[in-house]
Automatic annotation (TrEMBL):
Porphobilinogen deaminase N-terminal domain: residues covered: 24-224
Protein name as catalogued: Porphobilinogen deaminase
Gene, per the UniProt record: hemC
Enzyme class label: transferase
Reactions that this protein is recorded to catalyse: 4 porphobilinogen + H2O = hydroxymethylbilane + 4 NH4(+)
GO-annotated biological processes: protoporphyrinogen IX biosynthetic process
Family statement: Belongs to the HMBS family.
Positions bearing S-(dipyrrolylmethanemethyl)cysteine: C260
């Protein structure tokens, strides 16, 4: 006897039709790099069947260009206004450079995806193709990052740095105007903007360990967004390997209570043996560098990040943090 054929529509198809009915409004900053990131997210979502719309939102980090980030205050300068829109339901998701996202995000919001990471290195750009960075170089390098300044002071003691806040186009204009000889940036942004031909030096990531999250794009949403929709978005956007690495790095940053204007750094990577994370802190003058590497199974990513931070703090990292905060007149 023939078996009766029951053709049940798989639940997932049903669900997919439902969640893709709604247009996903994507909140983004308006800089060229931010738009590149948001468009990449939109393309991935469209490939998964979603309809998308970009909503451009200006942040304090875009508006205040005459102060370094350390002076504006490190918390959420590039993310706060986007988070307000998530909360008020004006957008379903917000897209950020993972590096710009605070280590602890507000309780009513969550990070649902980290996109596949680009090469993590910092690079130097110059309009002079013969520009060479040597250990004794006396060049002026444009950067406003406390981490990059401190690392330069350690490894290139004769270098001078000059401020270079603003979006990548603004910084390139400053380079063009010869406000400095070379401009230091994350390779990820340079690549995404198509400025690779100006690269004259690539810093090795073991000396110039990047900032937490460098090279990855983070996607944030309100916690109370429809759970099936969240699942669908995560499936379309999240890169599992990058996610694991960022969990470890972000746990490190959270435990260090660093924020983006403190010269901490962390970089995790995956291999057959599991997860490896290198991280630490450097004093502003580059004189004291604390850096450690830990290895372990991927399931312990967050614990490893925390343990690494506690190790660094107990080796004198807490002292470095205290003196940086005291110098800035913050409460210690
Ligand atoms: N804080 C600015 C910022 N946020 C993300 C990037 C670059 C792209 C990335 O790392 O994802 C940059 C510029 C830079 O550091 O050169």
């Amino acid at each position: 006897m023939e078996e009766e054929q029951v053709i049940a529509l798989p639940e997932s198809i049903d669900m997919a039709e439902n969640i893709t009915d709604k247009t996903i409004r994507i909140g983004t900053r308006g800089s060229k790099l931010a738009l590149w990131q948001a468009e990449t997210v939109a393309e991935k979502l469209q490939a998964a069947g979603f309809k998308t719309e970009l909503v451009i939102i200006s942040t304090k980090g875009d508006q205040v260009l005459d102060k370094s980030l350390a002076k504006i205050g490190s918390k959420g300068v590039f993310t706060e206004e986007l988070e307000v829109c998530l909360r008020e339901g004006q957008v379903e998701i917000a897209v950020h450079s993972a590096k710009d996202v605070q280590s602890t995000i507000p309780a009513d919001l969550e990070l649902i995806a980290f996109m596949e990471r680009e090469e993590v290195n910092d690079v130097l750009l110059s309009f002079d193709p013969n520009f060479k960075l040597e250990r004794e170089s006396k060049a002026i390098i444009g950067t406003s990052s406390t981490r990059r300044k401190a690392q330069l002071r350690k490894y290139y003691p004769n270098i001078t740095t000059a401020e270079s806040r603003g979006n990548l186009q603004t910084r390139l204009r400053k380079l063009e105007e010869k406000q400095f000889d070379a401009l230091m940036l994350a390779y990820a942004g340079v690549r995404r903007m198509g400025y690779e031909e100006l690269i004259v030096h690539t810093f090795p990531a073991d000396e110039f360990v990047p900032a937490t999250g460098q090279g990855s794009v983070a996607v944030e949403c309100a916690k109370n967004l429809d759970i099936e929709l969240k699942k669908g978005l995560k499936q379309a956007l999240n890169h599992t390997e990058t996610h694991v690495c960022l969990l470890a790095e972000r746990a490190f940053l959270r435990t260090m209570e660093g924020g983006c204007s403190i010269p901490t750094f962390a970089l995790a990577s995956l291999s057959d043996e599991g997860l490896s994370i290198t991280g630490g802190i450097i004093s502003l003058d580059g004189a004291i560098l604390l850096r450690e590497t830990m290895q372990g199974p991927t399931v312990t990513a967050e614990e490893m990040g925390e343990e690494l931070a506690n190790t660094i703090l107990s080796q004198g990292g807490d002292e470095i943090l205290r003196s940086i905060r005291a110098e800035r007149g913050e409460q210690v």
